[in-house]
Amino acid sequence: MSAVSGAKKVAVIVFPGTNCESDIVLGLKRVGIESEKVWHKQGDLSGFDAVVIPGGFAFGDYLRPGAIARFSPIMSEVLRLAAKGAPILGICNGFQVLTEAGLLPGALQKNAGLSFICKTVDLEVTSSASNLTSTTIVGERLRIPINHFEGNFTASKEVIEELEGTQRVVLRYLDNPNGSMNSIAGITNAGGNVVGLMPHPERAADSLRGETDGLKLLHGFANSL
User: Fold this and answer.
1) In which element (H, E) is residue 38 found?
2) Can you give the residue ranges of every domain in the chain?
3) Contact at 8 Å (CB) between 117 and 178?
4) Model confidence over 135-154: pLDDT tens digits?
5) Is 219 a catalytic residue?
6) Residue 82 has pLDDT above 50, yes or no
7) How far is residue 82's CA from residue 191's CA, in Å, rounded to a whole number?
8) Alpha-carbon gap, residue 43 to 146, rounded angstroms
9) Among candidate residues 56, 57, 129, 52, the one with its CA nearest the CA of residue 98
10) Phi and psi, residue 153, nearest 5°
11) Can you tell me the distance from the alpha carbon of 149 to that of 55, in angstroms, rounded to the nearest whole number?
């Protein structure tokens, strides 16, 4: 698969078990961005300007979420684009894949209480220094759905201090639903071009349902292209 010459194009990576690829394709279209689903065995993303790794259960979450997906052929291309500064976004299972691949620090473990959570939560924007939050205001509150069993963000004390001290925590839960350290819902790398978050902005991007806060984040991603 290849992008149309001259057009900004986003690759939406699909692994066995991915189930949110069509949602993010539609969400991106609503903010004016064309995207294309790319199978994980493909080894070339040279025609694309950005990457989204959507939610789901890559390889059935066997071993641990994202651990097997990290070794798919496509990931070498994701790493290459990230190193070039291209916008990379991992949502839910995609966040887990990015941590396993070393593009983001920390890990996602089982939720506190060992229960699957599917509900809309309140978030606060804590940094605008990322490709996802660049068009939002620090302190702005958003309502975005979550849908996960292993969304409990954890990292060493040193990593948490670095993330907090360098404005790399971009989203925080107002009422921590899963036990994440410091109520962290989303983080970015030092360059601001790689972002992972557990909430699903693409599921809050439909004006007909009256849930549009996710569009504010997708607009930020679109603005980074």
Assistant:
1) strand 34-39
2) 9-223
3) yes
4) 999 999 999 999 999 999 99
5) no
6) yes
7) 9
8) 31
9) 52
10) -70, 130
11) 12
Is 202 labeled as catalytic in the residue annotation? yes
Q: Give me the catalytic one of 40, 92, 148, 219.
A: 92
Superfamily of domain 9-223: Class I glutamine amidotransferase (GATase) domain (3.40.50.880)
6: pLDDT confidence band, cut at 50, 70 and 90?
A: low
User: How is residue 150 written in tokens?
Assistant: 């292993």
In whole angstroms, give the CA distance from residue 141 to residue 67.
Answer: 32
pTM of the model: 0.95
User: pLDDT, tens digit, for every residue of 174-222?
Assistant: 999 999 999 999 999 999 999 999 999 999 998 777 789 999 999 999 9
CA-to-CA distance for 26 and 19, rounded, in angstroms? 13
Q: Does the annotation count 148 as an active-site position? A: no
Q: Which two tokens stand for residue 58?
A: 């890559």
